[in-house]
Hints:
Keywords: Transferase. Belongs to the thiolase-like superfamily. Beta-ketoacyl-ACP synthases family. The strands form three sheets. The protein has an eleven-stranded mixed sheet with strand order 5-4-6-7-1-8-15-14-9-10-12, sandwiched between helices. A two-stranded antiparallel ribbon has the order 2-3. It is α/β, with parallel strands linked by helices. Strand 14 and strand 15 (about 365-375) form a beta hairpin. Helix 2 (about 65-80) packs across helix 4 (about 120-130) and helix 7 crosses helix 8 (about 275-285). It has helices spanning about 20-25, 65-80, 100-110, 120-130, 145-155, 170-180, 240-255, 275-285, 300, 310-325; strands spanning about 5-10, 35, 45-50, 90-95, 135, 160-170, 205-210, 220-230, 265, 295, 325, 345, 350, 355-365, 365-375.
Amino acid sequence: MSWAVTGVGAVAGLGGDVDELFRNLCAGRSGVAELRGFDHARHTAHHAYEVDNRPAPGVDVTRRATGLLLDAVGQAVRDAGLDESDLSGVPVLVGTGLRELRSVELWRTQGAEFPASELHFGTALRETFRADDTHTLSNACSAGLYALALGVDLLAQGADTVVVAGVDVLTETMYGLLERVQPVPPTRVRPFDRDRDGVLMGEGAAAVVLSRVPGGRPVHGLVRDVAVNCDAFHVTAPDPAGIAEAIREAHSRGGVKPADIDLLMVHGTGTLLNDEAEATALADVFGPDRDKPLVTATKSMTGHTSGASGLLNLVVTLRCLAEGRVPPTVGLENPVDEAAGFRFVTGEAAHRPLTVAQLNAFGFGGINAVAILEAAR
């Protein structure tokens, strides 16, 4: 069974709503810039894909993740025609990697004061939308799609409407951790390119409203199903076998075959291990059909938005299906051997009728999630 997406919302470094974000992605614009959120002197890497809403460069404030989340959820709820002043009884599921860790950092390093209750997204969701059924999932980089999987399960169990969201902002501890495990400081993200040098963090939030019965409301697209697993292979190194298993389960749950997939929205982090592992798994599953779907990796323009990345890609994928337009993978010039035979979109946006898409999201510890989407009928 498929579930209708009746509302979408997004905010990222490339746009304050879904229209602006998709327009800039299709134009091949990159959101990378010099790091704004904290002091360059403490780090070897000096770039990131941030949302430029701080008071001044180097000046950070608390609750930025919460602010982006409320923005994206508000957009999606309004788009779906729901009463944004009263979401009581509507489950709101939030996927995140780091929640309000940046606020804790500012408390520890600068003495920023705020009530401990503001570390919980549920507090702001209740105050803003009267949402009384909120849940936060912290499943690393696949958190957004894990939340989507739970949302689909709730609809299957009888819920009429579910709001699913994902959010993350830069934290200095995660930024520093990533630069210590990469051989050279990256200046941009280049997924699947042989000359890539690692990943840079991005910021953003996305939200969708899932409906059991749209009731005459416009439908952006359909979620056929979501598969999740945890192969627990390694803390940071992904396992192609675990990824391939998640992809096959998604195909089975969604009632599709590799040959049915028109678009692959890959995880594509640009790291030295992840891209080869993802390409190896895809080649294993798709086999002779690997040349059929168009393939793109939006992290080349948004950076890695962690728990928000899966749902940001979801709203972009829905727009791709609706318009038959696919953003390019910026910076991909010399693909790794494992990606040979795939039809990566490069240079400029591709135009082609699209019906079914596969969306990948993989996280630390082998937390894998794969969604199958379908264009609105």
